[in-house]
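Deliverable D2.4 — example input (structure tokens):
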């Protein structure tokens, strides 16, 4: 989801600069021969060339941007020069706010923005808390019986329940949960789908049909006035908009609904899964968080400590690990000439792992976010949700639901993993690839 945060007027820039430094052709050739992941190539390019670096995957130049000042220039200071084009998830989300561009995106963003700030956010507090209580109850049962479960599945169920309540006013039911597994299936398939749009759609047609059926049922129920126990949700905001905005057809409402589903649960579920895996490897971080404001559940100190766990997880595994842009005009970036038509890859994943910004960057240390001078001050040094006019609109929503869930789970349970992922998948999000099988210790009394 996108927001207006950080939007600045277009300003004059110099008309010329130094040539862009480029990676040597041999580096790209070796990467091709090894069959590596894109993240491997980008890591090598940054190490060889620096924070603004050109490389060639084909005849055209691509520019990798990880330097925080250059990141801020591209995303926040000059968003009209560095534009977003088609989104990889367009097959799934259609013309929703995540993939929309131009005036259509501005109208859609304005409608949704008020729902995720101030008063708009407070209407979701009860829905988040109820979803967290249900998850905590399941975990207490797992602890009593010693049942083995999948942490990733539990985090996905929680996050999906939260966003479904927020969208429809209804708690997540078993049938809807089962059908919406198709969302994750399509999202996971996107990086490997055929380049041809028709072939790509055909490859996931069955899952898209399941998603469309769920969306249609929800839209029809909301339009018929079928009230949920939590009251009206975001879907009702979209339906109200359709009464005087002809662009809000049933198709666009479907696209916004699916966009909010994807953005509202895939990223949160992935972050919470990573967090539990990181705490398993770093148990002292869990104890330090629980010691903050000990005995005072819901205190500001406890909340700050839990949010630091989330922020440090997002530093290592940002929700938007790579942000493609396209230079619509000539520009000078960090003193280097960028010609119109150049593809830009802003990579928060690598910015967050730059040892010049983050000492010992591979180490999980939530104290970076609770101690003075624990983190860099440059705005472009930490951007797990992006920045500028297209920064994720759901940042505060995601932080709130994650913190509320941790307030319920961390004091009561210690997760013991029996199997953990051995690979990392770099798709729309950075996901742990493999099982997350675990049991729980009995709740503390």
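Example output (designed residues):
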């Amino acid at each position: 989801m996108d927001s207006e945060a950080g939007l600045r007027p277009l300003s004059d820039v110099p008309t010329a600069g130094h040539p862009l430094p480029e990676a040597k052709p041999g580096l790209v050739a070796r990467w091709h021969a090894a069959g590596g992941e894109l993240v491997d190539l980008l890591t090598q390019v940054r190490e060889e060339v620096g924070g603004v670096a050109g490389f060639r995957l084909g005849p055209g130049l691509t520019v990798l941007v990880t330097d925080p000042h250059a990141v801020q220039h591209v995303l926040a200071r000059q968003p009209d020069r560095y534009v977003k084009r088609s989104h990889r998830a367009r097959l799934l989300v259609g013309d929703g706010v995540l993939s929309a561009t131009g005036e259509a995106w501005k109208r859609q963003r304005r409608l949704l923005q008020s729902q995720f700030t101030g008063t708009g956010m407070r209407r979701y507090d009860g829905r988040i808390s109820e979803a967290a209580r249900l998850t905590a109850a399941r975990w207490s049962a797992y602890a009593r019986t010693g049942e083995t479960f999948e942490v990733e599945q539990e985090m996905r169920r929680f996050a999906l329940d939260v966003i479904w309540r927020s969208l429809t006013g209804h708690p997540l039911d078993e049938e809807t949960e089962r059908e919406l597994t198709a969302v994750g299936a399509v999202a996971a398939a996107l990086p490997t789908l055929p380049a041809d749009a028709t072939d790509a759609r055909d490859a996931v047609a069955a899952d898209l049909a399941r998603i469309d059926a769920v969306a249609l049922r929800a839209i029809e129920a909301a339009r018929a006035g079928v009230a949920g126990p939590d009251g009206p949700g975001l879907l009702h905001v979209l339906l109200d908009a359709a009464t005087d905005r002809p662009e809000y057809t049933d198709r666009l409402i479907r696209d916004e609904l699916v966009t909010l589903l994807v953005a509202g649960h895939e990223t949160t579920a992935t972050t919470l899964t990573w967090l539990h895996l990181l705490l398993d490897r770093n148990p002292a971080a869990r104890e330090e968080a629980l010691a903050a404001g000990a005995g005072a559940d819901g205190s500001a100190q406890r909340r700050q400590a839990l949010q630091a766990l989330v922020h440090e997880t997002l530093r290592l595994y940002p929700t938007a690990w790579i942000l493609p842009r396209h230079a619509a005009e000539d520009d000078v970036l960090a003193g280097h000439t960028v010609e119109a038509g150049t593809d830009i890859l802003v990579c928060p994943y690598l910015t967050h792992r730059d040892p010049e910004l983050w000492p010992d960057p591979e180490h999980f240390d939530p104290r970076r976010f609770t101690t003075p001078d624990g983190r860099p001050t440059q705005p472009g040094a930490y951007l797990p949700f992006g920045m500028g006019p297209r920064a994720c609109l759901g940042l505060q929503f995601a932080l709130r639901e994650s913190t509320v869930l941790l307030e319920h789970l961390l004091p009561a349970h210690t997760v013991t993993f029996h199997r953990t992922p051995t690979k990392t998948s770099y798709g729309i999000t950075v996901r742990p690839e493999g099982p997350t099988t675990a049991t729980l210790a009995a709740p503390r009394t």
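Confidence is low (pLDDT under 50) at residues 2-13.
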